[in-house]
Structure formats: C-alpha cells, structure tokens
Amino acid sequence: MTPEAYLDLSLKDYQVGNFEASIAAAKQALKLRPNYAEAYNNIAAAYNSMAKWDQGIQAGLEAVR
Question: Under a CB-based contact definition with an 8 Å cutoff, are residues 44 and 60 in contact?
C-alpha cells in the first residue's frame, strides 16, 4: 500500500471511532514517508479523541515540524 492509502485508512478508522486502528494505519504511512505531516496530524487527532493529551501534543508538534 502507498502512504496515501494508509492515510485514507487512518481517516476512515478515525471517522468510525476506531482510534487505535487510525493511529496504527498512520504509523504505517510514516514508515513509508517519515515526514508525512498529514499522518502525524491523524495521530494527534486520534490521541486527542482518546484524551491522551501528551501523545496528541507530541504528534501535533511533529506534524508542524
């Protein structure tokens, strides 16, 4: 799969509330494209939705880096 396909899967998982799977798919995208800001953004959103603020902040900072 491509980084874009993993990102799309991450978004779909997020939309149905499957936040752990959303994070896992975004991390797969990052394995293929290490500086993929959109993948970090999805990770941040998923962590924030689970009230895991520290991880969400860290992923958000990576997205803007």
Answer: yes
| Amino acid symbol at 57 | I
Average pLDDT over residues 39-59: 98
Task: Write the DSSP string, 8-42.
Answer: HHHHHHHHTT-HHHHHHHHHHHHHHSTT-HHHHHH
Q: What is the dihedral of CA 20, 54, 57, 50, to 10 degrees?
A: 30
pTM value surpassing 0.90: yes
Q: Which domains does the chain have, with CATH numbers?
A: 3-64 (1.25.40.10)
